[in-house]
Design a protein that fits this description.
The chain is of the alpha+beta class. It is built from 17 helices and 8 strands.
Length: 426
């Protein structure tokens, strides 16, 4: 692929858009960002807060610790942190610079200020709006589809921004329609390393650091450490353990940033850390690692695109399959092997549910990575799943779209049931 090609430039834009740093689980952080933006409009401390959130936002925020809050969980904690101490200029690192004194202020604000959370059901899976009412002013901000996509702003009843009215809500990016697995492999083979080096260096540094943190300290269910203690320390186990350990830390209050993928820190960890572990084991060059990370990151994004930002389908299935493709590339695999690795992995694990962000995500990551690696093992052994084996279609692109249809449409009622259980059966 030539540097001047439209697809080459689109793939660079996609990587720069997707591989960004975030501190904490991205859904509560998006709420904190929304709240911080609303507070910025209000220009005073509110005495009443109303939060509107879609079911999938409620699901993904309910059980995860919000960083820099003194280990608080939930929507109220995320919004209070954004209002009291969030810096909206830092977007998904909105809570990065909170001080100990501000944490205490967050707790005081929660005790003193009513925060009313309302279920927002207007057909958009990723949807949130924060309304703030102060002594002198009112303000509201709405975010849809992606974590920093502001679609509406209002102050004192006057509209400042309304992308919903003009149809430019940011839900469709034409660059993503250009993604396909064969061209991703071509791009990985031909990309100028300087075009992606800084981006991937940040991913390697951040995601490697939080994985080490998760293995060295006590976080959640310590899935990474359990894997190494019970399954040995061969490279395959290490690949799963490091990815899981990053999630152990991230889901359970660690205040270190990760580089995300498809809007998710867990997917960013899953797509990158197994490839990094195998690169070290195989004594791969830096260039080989960069190109393999291009494979895993872009494959993860391609697999996730037809599913959507949030659903009942666990995103680490896509990222785990993509990690298997990245490891295969490190070992010299061609496009043919990579596409079969993806199909094999998706055939086995598609359908694993997402029941929100919490400690057990780390165990799901380990399963996702295992299936990605197993999909590669299968093809090396001359085995594969064929068109007609369940939802497997004739070709990798068609199979990806079929999985996306099941996740997006078929599992919609599953998502509703999960949300109902989480909200009404505490």
């Amino acid at each position: 692929m030539e540097k001047h090609d439209n697809k080459y430039q689109a793939y660079i834009r996609i990587l720069n858009s997707e591989l960004v740093k975030a501190m904490g689980c991205t859904e509560p952080i998006a709420l904190a960002y929304c709240a911080a933006l609303t507070k910025q409009l209000l220009e005073e401390l509110p005495n009443r807060v109303v939060v509107h959130a879609s079911g999938s936002i409620i699901k993904n925020v309910k059980s995860v610790i919000v960083p820099h809050t003194g280990h608080l969980k939930g929507i109220e904690a995320a919004v209070a942190a954004g209002i009291v101490a969030g810096d909206p200029t830092q977007e998904l690192e909105v809570l990065a610079d909170i001080t100990e004194e501000q944490i205490e202020t967050i707790h005081q604000f929660l005790k003193a200020t009513p925060i009313d959370v309302k279920y927002l059901d207007q057909g958009c899976v990723f949807d949130m709006m924060v309304e703030l009412y102060g002594p002198n002013h009112s303000a509201k901000v709405r975010i849809q589809n992606t974590h920093t996509n502001v679609v509406y702003q209002e102050k004192d009843g006057s509209t400042i921004l309304n992308k919903l009215e003009n149809g430019k809500d940011g839900s469709i990016n034409p660059d993503y329609m250009l993604l396909d697995i064969e061209d991703i492999v071509d791009f990985a083979n031909s990309v100028d390393i300087e075009d992606i080096k800084e981006l991937l260096d940040t991913q390697i540094e951040c995601n490697g650091a939080i994985a080490n943190e998760g293995l060295c300290h006590d976080y959640g269910a310590n899935i990474g450490k359990v894997l190494l203690q019970t399954r040995g320390d061969d490279v395959r186990t290490q690949a799963k353990a490091y990815a899981a350990a990053g999630s152990d830390a991230r889901m359970n209050g660690c205040e270190m940033p990760v580089v995300i993928n498809s809007g998710s820190g867990n997917q960013g960890l899953t797509a990158s850390l197994p490839v990094m572990v195998y690169a070290k084991y195989l004594c791969s060059t830096n260039e080989q690692l960069y190109r393999a990370l291009v494979i895993s990151n872009l494959c993860a994004i391609r697999l996730k695109r037809p599913i959507g930002t949030l659903s009942a389908y666990c995103g680490v299935v896509s990222a785990g399959a993509a990690a298997g493709a990245g490891v295969a590339y490190l070992k010299g695999a061609s496009y043919d092997t990579i596409k079969h690795t993806l199909v094999n992995a998706l055939s086995v694990l598609s359908g694993m549910i997402c029941d929100g962000a919490k400690a057990s995500c780390a165990a799901k990551i380990a399963l996702g990575v295992e299936m990605g690696l197993f999909g590669y093992d299968m093809y090396l052994s001359g085995q594969q799943f064929y068109h007609g084996d369940g939802i497997v279609q004739d070709g990798v692109e068609q199979t990806i779209e079929a999985v996306g249809r099941v996740a997006r449409e078929g599992m919609r009622s599953t998502n509703d049931e999960i949300i109902d259980i989480m909200i009404h059966n505490d």
